[in-house]
Design a protein that fits this description.
The protein is of the alpha/beta class. It has one domain: NAD(P)-binding Rossmann-like Domain (Rossmann fold). It is about 50% helix and about 15% strand. The chain contains 9 helices and 7 strands; from the N terminus they run βαβαβαβαβααβαααβ. The protein has a 7-stranded parallel sheet with strand order 3-2-1-4-5-6-7, with helices on both faces. α3 packs parallel to α4 and α4 runs parallel beside α6. The radius of gyration is 17 Å and the shape is globular. The mean pLDDT is about 100. The structure holds nicotinamide-adenine-dinucleotide.
Length: about 250
């Protein structure tokens, strides 16, 4: 029960890494806010947690929309009175070579992956500053560290997330708030299922273990950074990629 009674908002918790994090956090005693714009998926995760005896609350939100994000925070505080943990996990890809990338593809990915992280963090920061504590975990990517063909928009957002993580570690660290990031490698979720098999095989061959990661690998990294075990981590970018970046 490493997160007993902690209130944790996880964005994009309707599927993939966010869902795995939500299930894991609930097992560890957290009250989990499933924040997702896919209401069907989000409600299913809420149901699954409750059926297993955990505590969860679904809030429909598009993280790129500032008013909806403020509403998510208001609903969370109304229900659970406080917020201890924010996992900025929601993210999308819209891949294309640079010369073919449309303005819309650029804007959509920037709005969700970058502005969404800004919106959610800004919305919880004052409350955590008043408490003098809090844990904020951002989701970057190996692609934000190394770049990737066809991912101009995505790699820009994930590199930007690293910049914001380090900035907030300095700004909010003075107020007792830990801000860290997880940089996953290639983890088998719906997002990665879109990658053609041939490319996935090539990626696997670059990992010393010869395999992709599983959502639980990232859920456990989220758990570490959300728990008191990581109290002296601040501005850390935790690579969880099986060694693909070596
Ligand atoms: N899967 C990987 O290999 C991998 C690697 C590196 C980083 N990441 C990052 O991890 C995070 C989770 O990825 P995933 O693989 O679980 O993806 P996923 O597509 O399985 O899940 C993403 C979730 O985010 C939600 N979402 C998307 N846009 C949203 C918005 N505007 N507002 C609210 N919710 C929104 C979706 O509805 C979905 O439930 C993303 O930030 C992704 O960039 C994933």
């Amino acid at each position: 029960m490493r997160l007993k009674d902690k209130v944790a908002i996880i964005t994009g918790a309707g599927s993939g890494l966010g869902k795995a994090g939500a299930l894991r956090f609930a097992e560890e005693g957290a009250k989990v806010v499933i924040a997702d714009y896919d209401s069907k998926a989000g409600q299913e995760v809420e149901k699954e947690i409750k059926e297993a005896g955990g505590e969860a609350f679904f809030v429909e939100v598009d993280v790129s929309n500032w008013l909806q994000v403020q509403d998510m925070v208001d609903k969370t505080v109304k229900k659970y009175e406080t917020i201890d943990i924010l996992i900025n996990n929601a993210g999308v890809t819209q891949d294309s070579f640079l010369v073919k990338m449309s303005q819309e593809q650029w804007d959509t990915v920037i709005d969700i992956n970058l502005k969404g992280v800004f919106n959610c963090t800004k919305a919880v920061a004052s409350l955590m500053m008043d408490k003098g504590e809090g844990k904020i975990i951002n989701t970057s990517s190996v692609v934000g560290e190394q770049g990737n063909v066809g991912q101009t928009n995505y790699s820009a957002t994930k590199a930007g997330v690293i910049g914001m993580t380090k900035t907030w570690a300095k700004e909010l660290g003075f107020k007792g708030i830990n801000v860290n990031a997880v940089a996953p490698g290639y983890i088998m979720t719906e997002m990665v299922a879109k990658v053609p098999d041939k490319i996935l095989e090539k990626l696997k061959s670059k990992v010393p273990f010869g395999k992709l990661g599983e959502p639980k690998d990232i859920a456990n990294a989220y758990l570490y950074l959300a728990s008191s075990e990581s109290d002296y981590c601040n501005g850390t970018i935790l690579d969880v990629n099986g060694g693909i970046s070596l």
